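Milestone M4 deliverable, item 7.
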Amino acid sequence: MCGIVGYIGNKPIKEILIDGLRELEYRGYDSAGIAVLQNHQFSLFKAIGKLINLEEKTKNFETTGFSVGIGHTRWATHGKPTELNAHPHVGENSCVVHNGIIENYQELKNMLIQQGVKFLSQTDTEVIVHLFEYHLRTAATPFDAFTQTLKKLKGSYAILLVSASADETIFFAKNGSPMILGRNGEGETLFGSSDAALIGKCHEVIYLEDGQYGVATAQTIALYDQFNHAVELRFIPLSENKLSAQKEGFRFFMEKEVYEQSRVISDTLMGRLGDERIYFEELDATLFEGINEIKLCACGTSYHAAMVASYLFERHSKIRTSVEIASEFRYREPFLTHDTLFVVISQSGETADTLESLKMAKKAGLKTLVICNVDNSSMVRLADASILTRAGIEKGVASTKAFATQVSVLWMLSLMLAGMRKTLETTEIKRQIHLLRTLPATVKVDEALHEQLRRLSKRYLNGHGFFFIGRDVFFPLALEGALKLKEISYLHAEGYPSGEMKHGPIALADPGLYTIALLPQHKLYDKTKSNVEELSARDSTICSISPLDFNKADDHIRTKLSEDYMVEFFEMMVVLQLFSMEIAIRLGNDIDMPRNLAKSVTVE
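Output delivered:
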């Protein structure tokens, strides 16, 4: 989500850093900052909002001669979007920028506080710079202090650190979050979290591997692996195509965003999972006082996430829950009572029908909550409370990672409310928190599975339609799978509760009707299997998605054996996203910008 740039050289550094950050705007951000070290002195600038605000703050700042600098665009994950939480983060004589998650930051922060360190921000990143300066007191060299710091960090990170103790140097490290090292023929060294920040500035790069770290000066670059062995520098030519660079090697933004789901769900969960309870620091407990009903309102993919949540709120929290399509809710004179919490869900926070529904709820005096991906959007400003999903910018019109993070937030919210209402045993909440922790690994794309879906897609191009079927939370997942296919392939597809087949839709069954059957092991497997067998008996073409063998299927996509249906939900979600994408690719369609659709629907 966030963007990183770094520079060592003699050119005007402000322009280089800000231009690099501008090339990373596509990743999404809510604040930006740069730090420049020249002649043992730091110049630090931060601003909330767009880069134009940072440019305004730096308009009178110029450098001549040699300098080093780092820059960052931040999408808030831990701590609100404020200047104090914006990067770079500072110590006494050092600055750092960081992408990723320091999982043990609280433990490290507590230790540093005991040593007298004062923290300014709410972020996990600030731990890094203070830990470096803590080790700097006793280390033989600043680089030794940096390596000792890395040994203490647990989690994912791309780090650039500059220190007055080594004022012609940038220390760097990469583990689980992208980092690229570049150089040119003018004696300059550059860093970026994406190719896009480096194109036009250098001609050859090294894509750092996980566990690699090092130190760069104007004259030398030293690179080491996770075992502290020196690594030979092997630069490769840098592409000159900026759009391709933004896609980071993927064919389409949608594909990139499916693969990003592991990382963004980690961001969504960060700081919110305790051992026995869920923490949403942005919510006041009074929001739920006197609430006896939850009404969820959304459009499109967000509506499907709301449908999933309705099962979870009633199952976990034992609270009456209803789901509304915003475009219908606006005009049907709904009955609203003050004991209802009105929850709207939107990727952009600007969806016109959902925004108008929120205004109706506010006018009726209801408590309101928005689950959204964009801080300071219209819905976030209007609602009483908000939870950010932290998905980062989503360029593909067909939503993927936004849906995944919405469902993750709603699952956590159902558990938080269950704890408040004492409707689940603590042991069960702990069990489900454990399941939530497994989600980043669950949604990580298996390359062999993706290749199977790529091959399989050629068999699903010429029928007269698709049924996506499932039960319980897999019914809204079936709706979402059908919507993904419709949006990008332009093929007719419908999602159904599998038990409804015999109430009419089964009349369409024949070999040209493709049935995508969601068969989770841990939720109504036998019931769903029976419904699929009814379709198979009418000669429908069956593609089953399940961890268990199904001998009536024409094609079978095997998912992993899991311990819970919600884990199966997220794995099947990835399968449906990739399957729809591969079908659309074979049909030659524009995957990221399908016809007739827009990313944010701000008209009625």
